[in-house]
Amino acid sequence: MIVGIDAGGTLIKVAYTKKGEVHFEKYPIAEIEQVADWVNGLGDSKVCVTGGRSGVLVSLLHQPAQEMVEFEATHLGVQVLLKEMGRLEDAYLVTNVGTGTSIHCIQDNIHERLGGTGVGGGTLIGLSHLLTGVTCYDDIVALARQGSRERIDLKVKHIYEGKEPPISGELTASNFGQNLFSISGDLTKEELLATVIGLVGETVSTVSVQAARQCKSSTIVYIGSSFIDNPLLKEVVTSYTILRGSVPVFPDNGEFSGAMGAMSVL
Ligand code: ADP
Predict the structure, then answer these.
(1) How close is the Cα of 225 to the center of ligand 1, in Å?
(2) What number of H helices and E strands is found in the chain?
(3) Residue ranges in the chain whose pLDDT is less than 70
(4) What ipTM goes with this model?
(5) What's the pLDDT tens digit per position in 164-175?
(6) In sequence order, what are the residues at sequence separation of 6 or more whose Cβ sits closer than 8 angstroms to the Cβ of residue 42?
(7) What's the pLDDT score for residue 157?
(8) What's 38's domain CATH number?
């Protein structure tokens, strides 16, 4: 069997081929020992590991495994996924919204890290939990879908009351920026969670569209587990990216880019 593993800050992503077919699995990082046990029980296999926790995983394996730099693995994996979509272009930006957010420019097969932001999937879970007490990722994204940001985010039109604003009035002027003191006890979990996702989505897309200027491409490929079952984050990122003149792409299985890339070198 050929196995690529991306052991990240929050989740372990696994891609493997069985009878010529590619399979994907993901596990919480707390289950790293179980993942190692699974690999150790495979017998004859080739394994390549990437991600911030790759060293820990490799130390638990009984057989030698190849290790790979995360950004290189992600870049190779994204190439495979874009090719499958028929969308492989000469230049594009990759924004990986993992625990944190990392932004890369790919130009003529050379990749360069342009930067990132600490606002990412970890922020989504952490802030959501602090504000509402909800712990489970699936619950956070499901509740957020039912919420409105209307009472919490301050829009440009709220500031330019009765006057024509110089930019779209619908843009967020300040995330969580409305006068919340009088209504803080009255806000629902759904509203708060939707607003957290708005904050994360607008931050990663704003930083991405600005980085795209350095990359001479208007295509931004968004990957990372923060988009799993999270249509609201996709919606916020899509509309903001388009509004700023770039083209968002969300490849299927984008969260497995690193694992796919690791597998592709074996
Ligand atoms: P990393 O490689 O840093 O682990 P990922 O791309 O796997 O990053 O993204 C991690 C983020 O994915 C989490 O911060 C969270 O927002 C989101 N996520 C998606 N599914 C889950 C899950 N089942 N449990 C926890 N977080 C999840």
Answers:
(1) 5
(2) 9, 12
(3) none
(4) 0.99
(5) 999 889 899 999
(6) 1, 3
(7) 93
(8) 3.30.420.40
